[in-house]
Each structure stands twice: as structure tokens, then as C-alpha cells.
Amino acid sequence: MGKTVAEKIFDAHLVEEPYEGVHVLSLDRVFCHEITTPIAINDLVARGKDRVFDPARIKAVIDHVTPAKDSKTAIQGKILREWSRRHGIEFFDIGRNGVCHALFPERGFVRPGFTVIMGDSHTCTHGAFGAFAAGVGTTDLEVGILKGVCAFKRPRTIKVEITGRLKPGVFAKDVILSIIHRLGVNGATDRIIEFAGPVVEDFSMESRMTLCNMAVEAGATSGICYPDMVTVEYLWPFIEDEYPNKEAALEDFGRWRPDEDAEYEEVIVHDVSDLEPLVTYGYKPDLVKPVREMEGTRVDQVYIGSCTNGRIEDLRIAAQILKGKKIADHVRGIVSPASPGAYAQAFKEGLLEIFMEAGFCVTNPTCGACLGMSNGVLAPGEVCASTTNRNFNGRMGKGGMVHLMSPATAAATAIAGYITNSPLFREG
Amino acid sequence: MAYGFGGKVLFLDRSDINTDEIIPARYLTEISKEALAPYLLEDLKLEGFDPKRDLEGVKVIVTRENFGCGSSREHAVWALEVNGITTVIAAGFARIFRQNMFNCGLLAITLAPELIDDLFREFSAGEALATIDLAKSEVTIRGGEKEKTVPFELGPFERTLVEAGGWVEYADAHY
């Protein structure tokens, strides 16, 4: 019987199956940020276990609140910083830091076939590289740091074959919103979603990351895309010493594609030919409508950034729409390039100037506004058009409402002052 | 160290109660579990619910589908724990939240939606008390004149974590 990607990764990393269906896996990467890791560190110290399994496989960053906004966040940063130094862990501090799921791929830290955990639910983003990457709580993180293992149930996989041809102005964000709408917020709980098909094959790594980033919003443990030449090209600067040429890397990565006769719990063919730009309403990411049905909904803030849509591709699309335009008087525009690389590239290409001339505030790379921790918290009753991944009640600030959408829709919405389709979208 | 389970029940009649509602991100700057205690379910969107009043003395939560969806923040579980709530009975849990509960040695019990419906119908109107027999894998709820016992399933790994009181010591000893 053939195997899915996750089954192959699980087999290759199996330390023990202590009970039927429970797989303790060895970890290739344990990523850390300053919100969920300091408590793990404190607990390990308190238990007399201030050890790490392998400093080279652990990476740490301050990203949720940066620069520190108060003494408490400064202390969180300090604990992570000192721990990283103490153990020789590569640490990304202010000036080099970015949103974890944008920064770590940019630094080439993930490979096809890797196992990755982090105390952050959107760790599934790294599945774009053909890795098994899952968000975990602080206790799992602690054990990951200490022993380099994590336990998962035997993977059950849903394959979503994305077929058809996207209309102009429809993006990966719209695709994943349509999939979450179809599956529901718990439709993939305890499952892994393989994203396959011609649309995914045509996607850049950035778009694949957007797709995998929101797998958890359908409840999935992770999303996975198959490694191909797009993956090789993205990773090439980091792997060129390991392979004689790109074809050799591609062949090696081919180990992490599913077998022809792999068994899936469900195979969903998701044709996106008729898909139009989407937006969420309400407080769950599966409450999704076409933008045109929400046309005219007034917004107070537009936020472009986050681990979902703060990459260079996203900034380029938004800037393309904003060029030479001004955002509506009543709108506060915030753009947070998600990584130092995206920031620097946007600067070089003149995108930051376009954002600023349009009336946007450009912040440093941070998760800040997405979860209402800093840099753009809403007041009660305010509405934000956002490229982020969650629209939960109070997410961006108590009493606020968040509408999730693509960077193109967000940019067009900023100009109009109300939710509207971007000029890039064309029917037919 | 393992917890004792059971006690006063709070019924939360909603699906998809997310981690932002259980503990809002504005409190994630805390670095001790105890500091989270006053903020449990502060942003829960549920008509008539008042966390200050309704959480008093509660040990067990009964709720519907997909409890704990959203963030990986274990703070959501700790906020329950430091309030003395050690059991959640639901028609379904989000994966990370459920794992976090067992990793902390707490008990997440999944029951069929129809059974959860029954519990709501029979017990949610008044005061209710739950008794949990881990050895038999049974939960008994009493309220007024009524009493109902239902079996639940607990995997051996989860049982090990609950009995060990968490995952850290277990893993450090085993791997």
C-alpha cells in the first residue's frame, strides 16, 4: 500500500510508537518566539532541566511584540534572549527579526521531509516546503526543546486537488478561504491536508505558504504541498553546496511526494475556475462570502501583513493597486512587511514609498496587530479589513470586527474606504 | 502529580469557542500561569454569560463542538487550570487545545453530539455536579432529581499523561 507525504515523514522520524496510533517523532526543527517560549524556559529551569536537545536545530525570534511595548514584553524578550545565548541558539533580535513563519523560510531553515514544531498554531505554514510542521502548546514545545521529540496521532490525510484556472485578481488567499468555507472550521481536525493539483503547482512558494498557513483554520494539524522545482529554486541559495545541481536536489526531494497508490481519507477536487475574491464576515474563518456581497461595508482600518500575507509577493500586489492613489480619509492604513527580507526588497523596489504616499503607516516586521497585541489594536466597534488569518471575536482588540481578505482586496478597500473588489479582478 | 476530576458544572451552549475567547492575547504578556486567573473567558461571545458570576466554583465545563480552536497558546488551558477547572466535556475539541489539556494532566472528554444535547437538555437549567470515574471511564452528572452516567473513551497515551500529571516528566524519563 502506498503512502501519503505525512506517512513517509512519520516513518522516517519514528522514535517509538508507545501505544497504537501514537507516534513519537524526532524533530528537525523547534522554532521559538517570545510569547509561548519564556514560560517553557522558566518551567524547564524550575524543574532543573535547563537543557536543549540540539542548539543547531532550535531557532528563536521575537516577533509578536517588537520592539517591546512595556516591561512585561521586555521581560519576555529578555528571557528568550538570555536562554538563546546560554545555549548557543541562533536568535533573531530587533533589526534582524520578522514574523516567524516569514522569517524562518526566508533563512532557509525548512526542508522537504522535515519535522517542525513551534508554539504557534500557524506553524503549518512551513508545510509549503513539503515538511510536516505543526503548532503545539508550551508543554509540547518544552519537551521538543528538551528531548527533540513530539507525539502525534497517526496521520490521516485529506487530499485537496485544486484544479481549474484562477481568474485575474483571485489569489491564494481567496483559494484557502474557499477551502475553509467548504471544509468548515473543524472539517479537518486531526487531519493533514495535502494541497495538490495544477493550481498549486503554478503557485510561488509565497502563495503555497499562504495556503498552508490557514490549514489550521479548518482544524488541520498541518497542510502540505509537494516539493518540486519551485521549492528547489526557493531553497537553492541554502542547499547549493549539498547538491551538484538543481535536478539532483529535485530528485532527492522527490522522496517526499506521495505514492501513486497512497490512501486518503478523502480526496476533494476543488475547482477554482469560477472563484471570485472572497472576504469573511462574522467571527469564524469559514464564514466567507464573495467580496461583491459585502461591497460597501465601511472600514476604519486596513491591515496588510502577518504570516499569511505580509510577504514580498503580497506587498507587490497591494502596491500595484495603491500606486498613485490615496487611501480614504477615514481609513487608517497599516502595512507590516513580515520579514527583514520582504522589508528590504520592498524598500529597494520603491513599494514602501508607494504605501507611504498612499497614506499607509509602514511598521517594522511584527505579528502585532493580527492578534491585537500591538501596532494596530482596534477600538470597540471598529472594523478592520485585514490580510491576516483570524477573525475571532476580539481578535484585533476587544469589540473590534475583522474581515479577512487578500492583499489586493485590502488595498482596494483602503482606497475606497469600504470593502470592494480590486481592479485586478476581472470576470470571465 | 495527577489531578482529581469532577465537581460543579458550567454549561457553555456554543460551538467553536476559540482560544482568543478563553484567554485574550492582551494577557499573553504574563509569564506565570497564576496571573491569568482573573481573565478566563473574558471575551466569550455568549448571551447572558458573565465570567465573574458564572465561573464561581466551577470544576467542569460542558460545551459543544470544536472547543479551543485557534491559537496554540497553552495559556488557554492554564487559565482553566488556575481557576480549578480540570475537566472539559465537549462534542469535539481542536487538536492542539486537546493535546495541551492532556499534556498538563487535565481531562478532555469527547462525547457524541447527541449525548451532549441530552446533558444540556437535562441539566443546564439548574445546578449540576459531575463525578468522574477514571478507572471505569464514566462520567456521572447529577442535577435536581436527575442523574445520568455515560461512558467515555480515553486512549492509553492520554490516560498515561493524566495519571502522570503531564508530559514533561514522562518524556524526560522515556526519551
TrEMBL record, chain A:
<dbReference type="InterPro" id="IPR036008">
    <property type="entry name" value="Aconitase_4Fe-4S_dom"/>
</dbReference>
<protein>
    <submittedName>
        <fullName>3-isopropylmalate dehydratase, large subunit</fullName>
        <ecNumber>4.2.1.33</ecNumber>
    </submittedName>
</protein>
<keyword id="KW-0408">Iron</keyword>
<feature type="domain" description="Aconitase/3-isopropylmalate dehydratase large subunit alpha/beta/alpha">
    <location>
        <begin position="7"/>
        <end position="417"/>
    </location>
</feature>
<dbReference type="Pfam" id="PF00330">
    <property type="entry name" value="Aconitase"/>
</dbReference>
<dbReference type="InterPro" id="IPR011826">
    <property type="entry name" value="HAcnase/IPMdehydase_lsu_prok"/>
</dbReference>
<keyword id="KW-0004">4Fe-4S</keyword>
<dbReference type="InterPro" id="IPR033941">
    <property type="entry name" value="IPMI_cat"/>
</dbReference>
<dbReference type="InterPro" id="IPR006251">
    <property type="entry name" value="Homoacnase/IPMdehydase_lsu"/>
</dbReference>
<dbReference type="InterPro" id="IPR001030">
    <property type="entry name" value="Acoase/IPM_deHydtase_lsu_aba"/>
</dbReference>
<keyword id="KW-0028">Amino-acid biosynthesis</keyword>
<dbReference type="GO" id="GO:0003861">
    <property type="term" value="F:3-isopropylmalate dehydratase activity"/>
</dbReference>
<dbReference type="GO" id="GO:0051539">
    <property type="term" value="F:4 iron, 4 sulfur cluster binding"/>
</dbReference>
<dbReference type="InterPro" id="IPR018136">
    <property type="entry name" value="Aconitase_4Fe-4S_BS"/>
</dbReference>
<dbReference type="GO" id="GO:0046872">
    <property type="term" value="F:metal ion binding"/>
</dbReference>
<keyword id="KW-0456">Lyase</keyword>
<dbReference type="InterPro" id="IPR050067">
    <property type="entry name" value="IPM_dehydratase_rel_enz"/>
</dbReference>
<dbReference type="GO" id="GO:0009098">
    <property type="term" value="P:L-leucine biosynthetic process"/>
</dbReference>
<keyword id="KW-0432">Leucine biosynthesis</keyword>
<keyword id="KW-0479">Metal-binding</keyword>
<keyword id="KW-0100">Branched-chain amino acid biosynthesis</keyword>
<dbReference type="InterPro" id="IPR015931">
    <property type="entry name" value="Acnase/IPM_dHydase_lsu_aba_1/3"/>
</dbReference>
From TrEMBL, chain B:
<keyword id="KW-0456">Lyase</keyword>
<dbReference type="Pfam" id="PF00694">
    <property type="entry name" value="Aconitase_C"/>
</dbReference>
<feature type="domain" description="Aconitase A/isopropylmalate dehydratase small subunit swivel">
    <location>
        <begin position="57"/>
        <end position="113"/>
    </location>
</feature>
<comment type="pathway">
    <text>Amino-acid biosynthesis; L-leucine biosynthesis; L-leucine from 3-methyl-2-oxobutanoate: step 2/4.</text>
</comment>
<comment type="subunit">
    <text>Heterodimer of LeuC and LeuD.</text>
</comment>
<protein>
    <recommendedName>
        <fullName>3-isopropylmalate dehydratase</fullName>
        <ecNumber>4.2.1.33</ecNumber>
    </recommendedName>
</protein>
<dbReference type="InterPro" id="IPR000573">
    <property type="entry name" value="AconitaseA/IPMdHydase_ssu_swvl"/>
</dbReference>
<dbReference type="InterPro" id="IPR050075">
    <property type="entry name" value="LeuD"/>
</dbReference>
<dbReference type="GO" id="GO:0003861">
    <property type="term" value="F:3-isopropylmalate dehydratase activity"/>
</dbReference>
<dbReference type="InterPro" id="IPR015928">
    <property type="entry name" value="Aconitase/3IPM_dehydase_swvl"/>
</dbReference>
<comment type="function">
    <text>Catalyzes the isomerization between 2-isopropylmalate and 3-isopropylmalate, via the formation of 2-isopropylmaleate.</text>
</comment>
<dbReference type="InterPro" id="IPR033940">
    <property type="entry name" value="IPMI_Swivel"/>
</dbReference>
